[in-house]
Structures are given as structure tokens and as C-alpha cells.
Amino acid sequence: MRSVPCALPTIAYGENPPTERVVQVMLTGVSGYLSWPFNSNELLNTLDQMLEANAGRQLRERAMARARGQVEELTPRERQVLTALVAGMSNKEIAKALSISPRTIEIHRAHMMTRLEANSIAEAVKIALYAGLDEASLSETRAA
Length: 144
What we know:
Blueprint: E1 11-15, H1 19-27, E2 32-36, H2 40-72, H3 76-86, H4 91-98, H5 102-116, H6 121-131, H7 138-143
Parallel strand pairs: 1-2
Helix pairs in contact: 2-6, 3-5, 3-6, 4-5
């Protein structure tokens, strides 16, 4: 199941399936499992639940794709500053890590906020996390 990209939820069913089998099937990427025989209400309820979950997942995926696009628009230095902010570093700590002045960090940070269209550092950090930047990326920041 996982090897085939599919945006639609999948339901499996079986007659008196043992719990181990249900778990095994669910781990392959199936969204729901029904015990056969099932009635139309059970099927409709399961479909409603899965469509709701799928809609939430699609919203998250769109937000993550948008965030990745925004982060890709940053200059390498702006991305370093953002990554350091995600790690909780202050402007002075970032300046020291990158061997540049705190004022230069302020300038990069202001440009980064504009490019990300973020109104607060919390919003910028949220965008960074949605884009996949995290503290693991910090080693790249310090190495550059």
C-alpha cells in the first residue's frame, strides 16, 4: 500500500479478522477496517470519518508545501538565521555563531520576516517547522 502514492483513503474488510491481521493491514497504510458483514450505516460512518481525517491531512500538506516554498525564497543567510531562531538562539548568540554583528542579524531577520510574510517570530518559527527546518538543521547553520 505505501509504495503506491494515493491521496484517497482506503478501507479494508474481512470476516472475523484476528486483531493481529487488522493491525498488520492498518500498518500498510489502510485508513479503516470493517468486519464483514457490515451494514450501510457502518460503511457510511467509516467513510465520513476517513474523509474528515483526509481533509485535515490535505490542509496540513498544503500548509507544509506553502511553508517549504516560502523558506526556499530565503537567502542562505536568512535561512541560517531562521534555523537558529527555531533552536531558540538570541540575536547575539546567532551573531556569535555566524561570526557577524548583531546588527547584521537584525537586518537579515527583518528581511526574513518580510519574505515569510510573518507578523511575529512565533509565526516565522511555525513556518520553519512546517517547512521541515528544526534543531537538526542547526549544525548546518553553525558549519556555514
